[in-house]
Amino acid sequence: MAAPARDQTARVVRPESDELAELRPVAPSAEKESPRQPAEKAPAGRKTVDLPGVDKAKAAAAAAGAKLKGNPRGKVIVGVGAVAALALIYFGLHYLFVGRYIVTTDDAYVRANNSLLGAKVPGNIAKILVGDNKRVGAGNIILQIDDGDYKLALDSAQAKVATQEATIARIGRQAVAQESAVEQAKSQIASAQAATKRTELDFARQQELSSKGFASKATYDQSLAGRDQAVASVQGAQAAYDAAVAQLDVVKAQKAEAEGALQELRAALAKAVRDLSFTTVRAPVDGIFSNRLVNVGDYVQAGQRLGNVVPIDEVFIDANFKETQVARLKPGQRVSITVDAISGRTIAGIVDSLAPAAGSVFTLLPPDNATGNFTKIVQRLPVRIRVPMSVARENLLRAGMSVVVSVNTKGDPEGVDPVEAR
Q1: Same domain, 162 and 59
Q2: Which of 190, 297, 370, 383 has the smallest CB count inside 10 Å?
Q3: Residue-wise over 99-134: b if at least 16 C-beta within 10 A, else e?
Q4: Which CA distances in Å does 181 have to 175, 195, 205, 223, 418?
């Protein structure tokens, strides 16, 4: 009875069973080298005990783990899955806290207020003092137009002004002389009036004597004639005085006319001075002289384009956002700028202003949607973005460069001055 009981609890197996041999993991290299090699027999005297209560599921899991441990492709799949999960979590959190507040467009370009150089006077180009794409300061001479004719015109205008000034001086002296003539005529009137009074008294006496018979007829007639002559002298002196006064007025009018002509000549002189100064073409602002369109010896007309000066230290960015994006944009918001020509660098900027109308409104021929078929197109509005002055002065940003701008609309932009932010 003891022997059968021991057989029920355990049995001694000298060789390994086929089932346990299949569950035992085999090294891949050994299996590849001898796939059909029979299982190694247990050494003599070694016993293997198989308990009937072992869970077959655990055995299957152990077999699967053994297979995965020996399969490099499975490890790669698990690693890739873990990385993908982490990336998904990262980008989800980034969008939740940052990404949904960012408004981005790649329809953005670097701009500058280019100054157009033009000729104000006609002439031949005598000198070009600045090379192409060279830096110039405000007031520096860039081009020189032949000024020979303009110097002659200036000398002629100066001579005419000097002649007119001499004429005015002469007329002034004539006026002084005429004033003396007026005073002289006035004195003659007083003298004639005194003589008239004397002859009237004499005539009165002779008339009284003649009426009493004490005076002769000849004496009476002589006194009468003297009185009439004195009266006529007064009238003549008065006429001479009036003529002298009128002549003085004429001289004064001539002087005023000469002074008006002098003002006209002085204006012509000022124009000659300006024309001569315009033969020197100067830079209106600090910047880079470029796009030269003339050469030495070329004849230019007034208003002809000569070149450009680009104020490269004051560049800015015009970003054309879709009308569906501008609702959240406000002046003062922070902007991240990446330039296609400068890889690996992000520039910080500030939203300066938003255009009052879409770009299509300012075109030469604005679209008229009131007639014909209509196809709705999303419009774009220019948004001005300022860059820091320190960045602009690095001269890395050139007008016309393409950039990508991302505006952070999170938070309140109040209190940020775009000018002070530069």
Answers
A1: no
A2: 370
A3: eeeebebeebebbbebbebebebebebeebebeeee
A4: 10, 21, 36, 32, 77
Q: Are 340 and 115 in contact (CB under 8 A)?
A: no
- Are 320 and 380 in contact by the 8 Å Cβ rule? The answer is yes
Q: Would 220 be classed as within a structural domain?
A: yes
* Same domain assignment for residues 319 and 345: yes
Count of Cβ atoms closer than 10 Å to residue 312 Cβ = 21
Segment (H or E) for 148: helix 148-212
Summarised one tens digit per residue, pLDDT across range 136-187 is: 999 999 999 999 999 999 999 999 999 999 999 998 888 888 888 888 888 8
Residues 6+ apart with CB under 8 A from 73: none
Q: Is residue 196 part of a domain?
A: yes
User: Which residue range forms the structural domain that includes residue 135?
Assistant: 115-146+280-308
Q: Which contiguous run of DSSP H or E holds residue 230?
A: helix 217-278
DSSP structure class, residue 363:
S
- Tens digit of each residue's pLDDT (9 = 90 or more) over 385-418: 999 988 888 888 899 999 999 998 886 665 455 4
Residue 86 placed within a domain: no
Q: How many CB atoms lie within 10 A of CB 183?
A: 12
Number of domains in the chain: 4
- Nearest residue to 294 via CA among 112, 114, 130, 115: 130
